[in-house]
Amino acid sequence: MKLLLLAAVGGALGAGARHLVNVAFGRLLGSGFPWHTVFVNVVGSLAMGILIAALAVRFSGPLETRTFLATGVLGGFTTFSAFSLDFANLVERGAWSQAIGYAGGSVVLSIAALFVGLWGARAVLT
Predict the structure, then answer these.
(1) What is the pLDDT of residue 65?
(2) Separation CA 100–CA 80 (nearest Å)
(3) What is the pTM of this model?
(4) pLDDT averaged over consecutive 10-residue blocks of the chain (126 residues)?
(5) Are 3 and 72 spatial neighbours (Cβ–Cβ below 8 Å)?
(6) What is the C-alpha separation between 17 and 13, in angstroms, rounded?
(7) 125 in Cβ contact with 57 (< 8 Å)
(8) Which whole-number Å values give the CA distances from 54 to 24, 36, 48, 113, 120, in the listed order?
(9) Rounded-to-integer distance, Cα 17 and Cα 12, Å
C-alpha cells in the first residue's frame, strides 16, 4: 500500500508539471503541432536515464525512492498515451508527413535522451 501511495502522489506531481508544460507551450507556440508532448517525452526520458543511473550507480536507491520518482513523478510527466492521441489527430487531419515525423522524432529522441542520461550520470557518478 505504501508503494501505491508513493506512486500516486508522485504521479499527481508529474501530471501537474506536464499540465504546466502544456499550457506554457500552447501560449508560446500555439496548438498546431504537439511540441509540448515531444518536450515532455524527451525531457522525461532524459530525466529517467539520469535517475535510474544515479540510483543504481551512486545512491543504491530504495524501492520507495524509485517508485515515487520513476513510476510516479516521471510516469505522470511523460505522455506516450497523449503521444498516441496527438499522432492520431495529425493523421485524421491528413497531416501524414507531420505525423510520421512526429512519431519517428519522438521515439528516436526519447530513446537517445535516455541513453545520454544513463551515460552522463554514469560518467559523473562513477
Answers:
(1) 94
(2) 15
(3) 0.82
(4) 98 97 96 93 94 87 92 92 91 97 96 97 94
(5) no
(6) 6
(7) yes
(8) 29, 26, 10, 15, 10
(9) 9
- Sequential DSSP letters for the chain: -HHHHHHHHHHHHHHHHHHHHHHHHHHHH-SSS-HHHHHHHHHHHHHHHHHHHIIIIII---HHHHIIIIIIIIHHH--HHHHHHHHHHHHHTT-HHHHHHHHHHHHHHHHHHHHHHHHHHHHHH-
Residue 107 identity (one-letter amino acid)? V
Tracing cell 535510474 back to the chain, one arrives at 52
Distance from the Cα of residue 126 to its chain's centroid:
25
* CB atoms inside a 10 Å sphere around CB 95: 15
* Cβ count within 10 A of residue 43: 18
